[in-house]
Design brief:
about 240 residues; mainly beta; Factor Xa Inhibitor; Elongation Factor Tu (Ef-tu), domain 3; 2 domains; seven-stranded antiparallel sheet
Length: about 240
């Protein structure tokens, strides 16, 4: 996998969700129409599980043995420039006042997402043709946006689909509703004049449930901008797509 910059990454908050120990991609399907980008993101925190270590001393062996304990998602400490009228920041503020977790999404390096005009055949499965090459791998997430009209029947505009490995060529691919899923058949032509595909590299989108936590404003000398630290206490596993 090629190196990818953090610049261009995007941070999204969804809706309030019921607490859940283990989440799967299906738990975020309903969030596709609910994501709101939190703008003004200046510094990203670390995101990922840590694991407790359980140790026990053994007298007879003169040795301390260790086993793995529970995992925890930790706290993702983020810094934002205060934007009082930003819908994402307003949504985060409301989430801070809630006792419930919310859905979150991070698209790492989203400024480097591939984008181009494509055609989609009516076939079993439907085949997406990206004439100048797509550079995607199996399971890469991709969305299709018609400029007007509709996509071929079987596909929904601005919904996340996943590249299917079977039949993948440098300029063509089919898509599935889930990573590793069955390729989708398109049963009728769409009415869109043009279709734009936007795709993130595989493994660069993280989805999780978490608690929105309050944070302090940061000051400094006269030439320091005022920033605010907001953390997300990750309360589930992290789904990586």
């Amino acid at each position: 996998m090629a190196l990818q910059a953090v610049a261009g990454s995007k941070f999204y908050i969804g809706t309030r969700v019921a607490p859940k120990d283990t989440v799967a991609l299906a738990d975020f399907t309903a969030q596709e129409a609910e994501w709101t980008e939190v703008k003004g993101w200046t510094q990203s925190g670390s995101l990922g599980d840590t694991q407790e270590i359980i140790s026990q001393n053994f007298i007879d062996a003169n040795r301390t043995r260790q086993i793995k304990g529970t995992r925890v998602g930790g706290s993702m400490e983020n810094t934002f420039a205060p934007l009082p009228n930003d819908p994402g920041q307003l949504k985060f503020k409301n989430a801070i006042d809630s006792c419930s977790p919310y859905a979150f999404k991070v698209e790492w390096g989203a400024g480097c997402a591939s984008e181009g005009e494509v055609t989609i055949s009516t076939a079993t499965p439907g085949v997406v043709t990206w004439p100048d090459g797509h550079g995607l791998e199996a399971d890469s997430p991709v969305i299709f946006t018609p400029d007007s009209g509709t996509l071929p029947t079987g596909l929904t505009a601005d919904t996340v689909y996943y590249v299917v490995g079977s039949g993948l060529t440098p300029t063509t691919f089919s898509v599935a509703a889930t990573p590793g899923g069955a390729a989708i058949a398109t049963t009728a032509d769409g009415t869109a004049t043009t279709i734009t595909a936007t795709a993130q590299p595989a493994g660069q989108t993280d989805l999780f449930f978490g608690l929105a936590m309050p944070g302090a404003k940061q000051g400094g000398d006269s030439n320091t901008p005022i920033l605010r630290t907001w953390a997300v206490a990750v309360d589930s596993n992290i789904v990586e797509v």
